[in-house]
Every structure is written in C-alpha cells, then in structure tokens.
Design brief:
Chain lengths: 292, 337
Amino acid sequence: MDNSFVFPQIIFENKRRIPEDFREISLEIKRDIIKSLALAKSGHSGGPLGITEVMTVLYFGEIMNYNPKDSYWKHRDRFVLSAGHMAPILYSVLARAGYFPCDELSTLRKFESRLQGHPGLDMKLPGIETSSGSLGQGISIAVGMAMSDRLLDKNNQNVFCVTGDGELQEGACWEAAMSAGNFKLDNLCWIVDNNDCQIDGRVKDVMNIYPIEDKFLSFGFNVISIDGHEYSEIISAFDQFKKNSEDKCGKPTCIIAKTFMGNGVSFMQDKYSWHGNPPNYEQAVQALSELV
Amino acid sequence: MKFIANGSKPTRHGFGEALVILGEKNPNVVVLGADITGSVMTSYFRDKFPERFFSIGIAEQNATTIAVGMALSGKVPFFSSYSAFAAFRNSDQLRISVCYNNVNVKICGGHSGITVGPDGATHQSLEEVSFLRALPNLTLVVPCDYNEARKATIAIGEMVGPAFIRFGRSPLPIFTDESTPFTIGKCEIFNEGKDVAIIANGIMVWQALLAADELEKRKGIKARVINCHTIKPIDEETIVKAAMECGAIVTAEEHQVTGGLSGAVAEVLAKNYPAPIEFVGMKDTFGGSGEPEELMVKFGLTWREIYASALVAIERRDKGFIGLRKIKDVAEYSENL
C-alpha cells in the first residue's frame, strides 16, 4: 500500500494567478490530504478537503508574504490554524511551498513525526507558528500577533487565521472577536470555514451559531461572505482584506467561506461523518481517481 | 534570629514595582490587564508605559492566549489577575498555548490564598500550585515577602520560558533585604539547624522563622528553615540534604497540602531519602470570609502548627511509627502555646 501513495516533490510558487491556475495546485494538495490520511489510518478528512481552495489561494496567490527558506523571517505574515484538527491541509501547503520535503507528508501522525496529529510547535516543523488543537485558542493567539504588529512593531504584517464554524461555539472565540474589534486590528483576517458540519451533525442542530455574519458585524468586523470553492471570490475577498489593511481602515476582516466538507470526493462531500475519519485503502484509491 | 521584620508591605507591591524596572530595562516587556490592575499593581507599569499596557477586560482566557501571540512575536508579556482566575479560568490556555508551546509568557497570580481575607472562598485560590506544578516547561515561584517578590519578578522577566509567580493581597512582614540571595530553582536556608527542617514558601516562611525561634527558646530544638520559593523546578539537593541531616521534615504553605509544596517535597523525599514529614497547609477544605489573621488561626496556618508539627516529626523520627496521623495530634502538641 505504501508504494502506491508517493508524494512527488512538486513545489508551487507564491504569485498572482488567474483563477483557473489554482485548480492543479488544489488537486495536488487534496491528493496529499487523501494519501497522508490513508497512510496515517486516522485523522480528519472532511475539513482539510473543504478549505483547500481557500488555503491554495492564500499560500500560492501572493496573498501572504512568507519565505520558506527563512521560516522565521521577521517581516513574514502569519498564519494560524486555530482549527488544529485540519492539520493535513496545513502540512500539505507548507510542503508544497517548500518548507520541508514533500515525502515527509507520509509521516503524518506517526511516532516521532514532525507532522503531529495536531500542530505542535515543539516539533519545530518549519512554517508552523503555534501549537493548536484546543478550539478557540488559535484565533486569540492570532489576535495577540496582530496586536503585536499593529500596536507595537508597526511592520505592516498581516495575520491570517482559520477557524471552523463549530469552533465558534467556544466562548473564547467571541472574546477574541471582541478584542479584535476593540483594538481595530485591520491586519487580522479571520477565515471561518463554514461547512455547517461538526462531529455530531449539522452545526445548527448541535448548537446554533447562526447568523454568523451579524455576530461579526456587531463586533466591528468587515464581513465578506464567499463561496469557498470559487477562486475568483476567494481572490477578491483576500484583495479586499489586504486593501483594508493597507488603508488602515480600523476594522478586522472576517471572511465567511461557505464550503462543503470533503469537497471534491463524491462519497465524502457534505457528509459530517467524514469530519474525523480517514479513508481506508480502497476509499483512498477511489478518492484519488476523482481528484484529477 | 537572623531575620528581623522591618515594616510590612504586600508582595503585590514588590511585583508592581519590579514590572516598572523590567519595563525600563527591556522595551519588549508588555503587560496585559484584566480590569483589576489597581489591585494587582500593574497600574504602576500602565502609568509609566501606557503604550505597552493593554487592557483586555474581564477575559482571562483571551488575555492568556493574546499574551502567547505576543510572545510568539518576540514580546515578553506579563498577564496578571487574581490567581483564582489567572490559573483556573484559563487553565486550558495555560496547558496548551503557554506550556506546550513553551513560550515566554509570564502569568502573575495575585490575591492568592486565604489571606485575601473578607472576599471569601470564591477568591481564595488554594489549588493552583497543584495544577501548575504538573505542567511541563513551567517555572513556578512563590515569594515570601515584598523584597523577594521584587527579585522574583525581575528574575522571571529575565529568564526565557513560561513562568507563574504567586503573590498575595495583605501586608506581610518584610524580613529579607537586597542582600538576601535569590536564584530561581535554589532554596535558601534562612535559619541553620539540624534537629528538624521546616520547608516553607510564601507567607509561611515568616511563620516558620517564628516557629524556629519558639522551638529553640522552649525546647532547645534547632530548626533549619528553608525558603523553597521555587516549587518548579524544585531544589532536590537542598531538600534531600535536609532530610539526611535532620531526619524530620515539616512543610508549610498557604495552599492545599494535596499537590502543593507539601506534595512536591514528599515526592522528592519518597524518591531519594524517605523521612517523617508533617504538612502545615490547607487540609482539603475551602476558605471563608474574615481577617487574614483570623483565617490563619482557623485554618491552622501559623507558627503554632509548624511548632507542633516539628515536635510530631521529631517524635516520629525517634520512635518510628506512632500511629495514624490525625489533625488532633498536632493540637495536642500545641495546647500550651
């Protein structure tokens, strides 16, 4: 089985692209996610596949400023994966950006791997800014990073953070939202992966957090709702955020990306049962045949 | 006695003044407040360095993780609130974002222990040492007076890594001075003796010195008084040496004995050199309203309990097993005090 899931060493540039040019990158990343999870035999499939288009534009569309050859470059923009269980997508984009060898993706969740089940700063994997996994904490860390630059260092760094939508049930998220508005963190881009799925079911059935837009508006955010699988909408949303940040508009940005869990794999699409499960070998082969 | 009380001040004052010193030395030092800045004395820093002080409001979880984000951006953030909130409301944030990340965040728990007084049990944190001591990477310091609180605050500000400092609300005798040594992770011997060793921290160090004085006056017993201000990393060498040379140990803390300094010392002794040990501290109970002195008597946190516990420990050392330990035993030893 291991031989059938190789990770070709293909690195993508971080540059302006037309929407159609992101498709091949997203497919490579989704194949990474399927292969690494199948090899790990545990982990979260649905979320990473659903947020792949957004992450592809973020890392390979010249939205974020980073340097894989100097991962702690002082003036880099930051990315925090508050929804730490979506680690496979982060590991894949980092590998494809050139932070570490692509074949290391085969070690996901394995003993002493740098690719821990949830991101762990202790493993010193280049590109990882913080440990995350206990929901609601990463976004507040992102607020601290954004404050550090906007209010102290003033180097025009942007901070991007992805939370889930179920994650918004954690009260800590709203403490973070309160402070982002309070400190006028226009360099903070909070991306909500709104796939409406969590382990127990539909978000509104487990604990209704809607309307999401109104909540962020009331905390003083610019809110941009997009189809999280449409590259043109994703690019446009990030461009709006970057303009807000450059103009020092005084408001943080929230991009609510409407997505489908497991997007691109027919048997996973929009099925919350795929939140926390990996594909088995046959399922992985089936998924890979669809991701071309 | 080597130590003489020279006035009194709360440890929180030493903390607040030290933050200003740190702020002057290091432009990366920032302070986060959670509404009670005047109580925990971060107001000194706020007034001196308003651009480096951030009011987060009554949101301790958020303050803790914001501090983490700032530390990951090269700052040295101090977050201070009452221990009741700065160690418990944010315990998940402390575990994962502060300690697992191993970041340079300093958490400062004020108004700790029963000497908060009239505010009562809700605000009297008595369990945080047990929790914090179990967190990998964390340094944990409990200073004994105003001067030591100053030194300890500066020391944790100059070390790299997560640290928690525990201090209190009420005035305490000031008995150390600028020349008293202070090194993180190193116990200090405040009174020499080989008959029994009293290992204390926080407000109980002064009580331990009073107890040692009474033991010598009344019984001719020379007690070694050890100020164990750093609970983590604990100074195993000094503690084991005390057990080997004295053979009888008393611990004293303004905290639950379960998992606190008592637990820490018991672990060190069990592993290296088992010796009879008596615990002075909170015995599995919550506090309550009252003046600090009234509460210290009610809950058995005075020199009298240390004195009596020393006699019990010595008897156990000399006679071996003297029956199952009961709180009543200590009362019997202290009835004439």
